[in-house]
What we know:
2 copies of one chain form a homodimer. Chain A is mainly α.
Amino acid sequence: MGPTQPERWVRERLGHSPRDPALFVSALTHRSAGGAHNERLEFLGDAALNFLIAHQLYRAFPAADEGDLSRLRARLVSREPLAEIAAAHDMRAVLHLGAGELKSGGFRRQSILADALEALLGALYLDAGLAGLEPVVERLFGPRIAALPEPASLKDAKTRLQEYLQSRGLALPRYTVLAIAGEDHAQRFTVSCEAAPLRLSGRGEGSSRRRAEQGAAAAVLAQLGAGVDG
Amino acid sequence: MGPTQPERWVRERLGHSPRDPALFVSALTHRSAGGAHNERLEFLGDAALNFLIAHQLYRAFPAADEGDLSRLRARLVSREPLAEIAAAHDMRAVLHLGAGELKSGGFRRQSILADALEALLGALYLDAGLAGLEPVVERLFGPRIAALPEPASLKDAKTRLQEYLQSRGLALPRYTVLAIAGEDHAQRFTVSCEAAPLRLSGRGEGSSRRRAEQGAAAAVLAQLGAGVDG
């Protein structure tokens, strides 16, 4: 208990023996607790994490373009995956929060966990340099990087269909609004997508024209089969 | 001329002798030129630059909070300052662009220069590691970091006035809309700001309520004098 608890957690969970334990106590202290809190460390850790993940993705996906790499990174370093990693390592038990924050749930609790994980990575960087941070990031994020989907599958259906056609020198699909139903504030759009060169067409429905178009493109892609995802 | 020109530029301008010159040729090639272009390197360089600048600001401004640090960083690594640095080093002369892009000006040219500078930093990182990149970033950005304003002055007027009052335990200012004039698409708002505990008030005008409030807060701050900026 007390100030040695975070230190033990860092040793057991991150495999690092703090040279400066106070850094890690700050990293695990939310601003609501008062005193030295983790927001500056979070700024630093966020930047270090984004950089290391960028480099790992750059190496792991040599054929991915800049947009793919950005989308893949967002899957790894946004609030939700960070909070999951923090929760999987029982970070909650060593987080120092104000009384009110202890009861918060959902989105807010996720943010607090995600921010504290970034702050811990910032503390680790200050304590051990990039050489100390890199293996920890590798360990925490490696399995998630290995499990990432093919970059192409992160693109929306319209983009994928367009690229499929363009790469074969075929004419682009045509989207037509077939119907708009419902009141002004709750409209439903029905759109068709015709890919004439493929002799395929599909229909989509949605609360906006854009969503309906995506659905129609997805319907055409589904007829093309799994090959388009790769 | 030819492929050795970028290499000479990197040597003279960045003080680095490329181990893999092809990396730097790619970094200086816009996608409009065809072939191996700089977008993946830009993704990597952007991340590396954001990280190094974050660390430098973290050290240089020990009293700045996370918001201050983010605002300061934006001043250094956004399109405009990056394009200025690229232009100051005659990067235009070694950039490889498609015919159409050569004529572009303004915003578009700025983006191309800024992106290529980031790509160069990415290439430098791959070629020489963080140890090779760090001194170059230091040299390119150091003078700009030294010239940064005090973090507090980057905050908007309403925030500064609020913090001034809060730090003295005084009541917050009151904003009142005095008038809304003009047609729907071109409204003008007039707002007053009363800081009762200071016996000060000010007026602001603008195309939105928010802008008018900022003007009114600035008018009160002006009466308080320069001390609030520091």
